[in-house]
C-alpha cells in the first residue's frame, strides 16, 4: 500500500474531476444549496474510495495527465476509422477474403495500466481482437492481413509506451512470423 | 434571418449525414455478425457496430446539440462506450478460449513456436 503523501495527488485529481463531473452533469450552477449537496456527495465518494484503497495510479491515473485525450485519442480515432473501412469492405465483398490468424504481439509497456490501454486499443480497432494476455505478450486474433495488423500494432505499442512515459524500444516489437 | 436558415440547414445536413453513415456502419456490423463464419470472426463484426456505428451516431447528435451540456454528456457516453466495449469483447474472447473453443484459422498458427525467440534473426 502506498503512503499517504503519494496518494494525495490522486485524491485531489479525482476530487476535482468528480466535482466537475457533478456540475456538468447536473447543470446546477446557481443554487448554493444544490452545489453544497454536490460537494458533499463528491467528498463522500472520495472518502469511500480512500477507505477501499482503490485510489492509486490505476484508479485515478493522474500521472497520464491530459495526454491520452490530446495526443493518443486523435490518432486512435483515425486508426479506428481506417480499419473500420477495411473490415466493412471485407464484410460486404461477395467472397469475403478472410485470412484469419492468431499472432503474438509484444506489449513492451512497463505498467499494467499501459498494457491494458494497449490491449484495449488493439480490440478497439476492428479486425483485431486481443484474446489473451500472456505476461508481457498479447495474443491477437486478426481477421485478415497479418502484416498490416502486425505493423499497426507495433506503431500503436510505441505510442502507448510514450503515453505512459517509458521509452519505446524499436527492435523488439517486430515479429517475423 | 436568411443566414440563420442557411446555418441551420448546414447543421442538419452534417448531422444527418453523420447519423446515416453511422447507421450504415451499424447495419454492416450486423451483416458481418451474420455472414462471418465462426465465433472469433463474428466478434470483429460486433466491433464495427461498437466503434464506427456508435461513434458516428453520437457525433451526429453532438452536431445537432451544438455547444451545450448535452454535447458534454454525449462525449462522456462516447468515452464510456469506447472504454467498455473492448473490455467486454476481450472478456468474451478470453472465456471462449478458456472453455476450449479453438478459433478456425486460414493462416497456420505459428506463434507458439516463435514466441520464445527474439526477432533478431530476421
Question: What are its keywords?
Answer:
heterodimer, A: 177 residues, mainly alpha, 2 domains, 3-stranded antiparallel β-sheet, B: 122 residues, disordered C terminus, Putative monovalent cation/H+ antiporter subunit E (chain A), membrane (chain A), monoatomic cation transmembrane transporter activity (chain A), Cation_antiport_E (chain A)
Largest sheet of chain A: 3 strands, antiparallel
- Unreliable stretches of chain B, pLDDT < 50, 5 or more residues? 112-122
For the largest interface in this structure, which chains are involved and how many residues does each contribute? A-B, 44 and 47 residues
Number of strands of chain B: 0
Considering DSSP H and I runs of 4 or more, what fraction of the residues of chain B is helical? over 70%
Structural class of chain B: mainly alpha
N-to-C series of helices and strands of chain A: HHHEHEEH
What's the count of strands of chain A?
Answer: 3
In the sheet with the most strands of chain A, the strands line up as: 1-3-2
Total helical elements of chain B: 4
Structural class of chain A: mainly alpha
Number of domains of chain B: 1
Mean pLDDT of chain B: 83
Stretches of chain A where pLDDT is under 50 for at least 5 consecutive residues are 170-177
Strand content of chain A: 5-15%
Radius of gyration of chain A: 21 Å
Can you give the helix content of chain A as a percent range?
Answer: 55-70%
> What is the overall number of helices of chain A?
5
Strand content of chain B: under 5%
Describe the sheet with the most strands of chain B.
none
User: What would you call the shape of chain A?
Assistant: elongated
Structure report:
The complex is a heterodimer of chains A (177) and B (122). Chain A is elongated. Chain A has two domains: 4-62; 66-164, no CATH class. Chain A has five helices and three strands. Chain A has helices at residues 4-26, 32-52, 67-92, 112-124, 146-164; strands at residues 101-106, 128-134, 137-142. In chain A, helix 1 runs antiparallel to helix 2. Chain B is mainly alpha-helical. Chain B has one domain. The interface between A and B is large, with 44 and 47 residues. Chain B: Residues 107-122 have a biased composition (Polar residues). Chain B: Keywords: Membrane, Transmembrane, Transmembrane helix.
